[in-house]
Amino acid sequence: MNELSPEARRAYELDRAHVFHSWSAQAELDPMVVTAAEGSYVWDGAGRRLLDFSSQLVNTNIGHQHPRVVEAIQAQAGRLCTVAPQHVNDQRSEAARLIAGLTPGDLDKVFFTNGGAEAVEYAVRMARLHTGRYKVLSAYRSYHGGTGTAVNITGDPRRWPNDYGSAGTVHFFGPFLYRSAFHSATPGEETARALEHLDQLVAFEGPDTIAAIVLESIPGTAGIMPPPPGYLAGVREIADRHGIAYIADEVMSGFGRAGRWFALEHDGVVPDMIAFAKGVNSGYVPLGGVAISERIAATFAHRPFPGGLTYSGHPLATAAAVATIEAMRDEKAVENAAHIGDTVLGPGLRELAERHPSVGDVRGTGVFWAVELVADRASKEPLAPYGGTSPAMGELVATCKKLGLLPFTNYHRLHAVPPCTITADEAREGLAVLDEALTVADRHTTGWGL
Ligand code: PMP
Hints:
The protein has 13 helices and 16 strands. It has helices spanning 6-18, 55-58, 67-79, 90-102, 116-131, 148-153, 187-205, 231-242, 294-298, 315-330, 333-355, 391-402, 424-442, and strands at residues 34-38, 41-44, 49-52, 109-113, 135-139, 169-172, 210-216, 245-249, 273-276, 288-292, 359-365, 368-376, 381-382, 405-406, 408-410, 413-416. The strands form three sheets. Strands 4-10-9-8-7-5-6 form a seven-stranded mixed beta sheet, sandwiched between helices. Strands 11, 12, 13, 15 and 16 form a five-stranded antiparallel beta sheet that branches. A hairpin with a 2-residue loop joins strand 11 and strand 12 (368-376). The longest helix is centred in the last third of the chain and has 23 residues, at 333-355. Bound molecules: 4'-deoxy-4'-aminopyridoxal-5'-phosphate.
């Protein structure tokens, strides 16, 4: 606190006096002041530079302050700041065209929202109206947003205190080999057993009552668990068999994070809807949306869609999306994410796992990696309780920050989720910090569990 510049100190004190923060015990917070950012780095209130291995909230896929995106927002602000959703707005039209071009299959219509939770809300509403059914199936290991239905279908502990009014939400276990709910030994076994479980769940819930299966193509905040090959295709098959809408939540995994425009490309799957946000414009202006198949969209061809938002397709937000998508394309940011994952982050994190007993598992793809920390490798006891935190995790974060790295942590996991545009040297700089910081976590483990 003492080292903050006078401007940063004033911002901090006003924040503590008046700002009510997300998902936090307000009196126990000591938030970091961020004063500037560029590329893969942010600067704190004391003027220190930190490598942003969090991409803020896993959204600055194109990096910070990309000049093309900043200029597009500035130009649009000078031209036209707001247009009501019932009118045509050229930036919304162009963003929708670009997004429809990136999504697989015939997901050619886009409904814009202000973020990810709203995208999930609207996708579920469309599925319910399209099918005339009400139940929604989603994974325990998931996060779908902080609003009504989105938080109810979320599986992670953030649902617990919000778990009322959730009639019709049913959770299932997705595939996760490291902590398999099915005692599987191989990815093939995990795929088969997780699909068998979902199939049975659908049968017992009554297929004719199920409107949608909502699934993160790679669950993100809940642990970055790329599904084993064939799983998403199997979900598609189950949904098709029963006339259930398959909603892919790509809010975190989309727009390059997984080394593809959408993570479901890894399995070649076409869902009925894709919920997106974050990376669509790297969070420079709030934006989300739902890409909708022709079949679902046709439900509302002559029947009014009962829903809308004042800021649906806001000009500043969609101008930022157009510039972001075009710049990512021109600069091959998605290819870079895949390359960094394959050649630096993946091998580097696995190498750290070999030397640090606190690392139980490393998994991911692109710039979307989880390091799962354990108190004991043999028992896989997490370094923080499910839904909680621990002094060990606190020390790990503090050490990373002291060494110039801003990590993303959740419970007993550290997520390495830098911008898609990160260079190999920057990624190696992050790995070097993690190497040193993990020695702190190692002190809280019982060695190699031997
Ligand atoms: N779905 C997923 C997969 C997410 O990761 C998030 C946000 N972390 C959301 C939905 C909710 O998005 P938002 O916070 O923009 O409402």
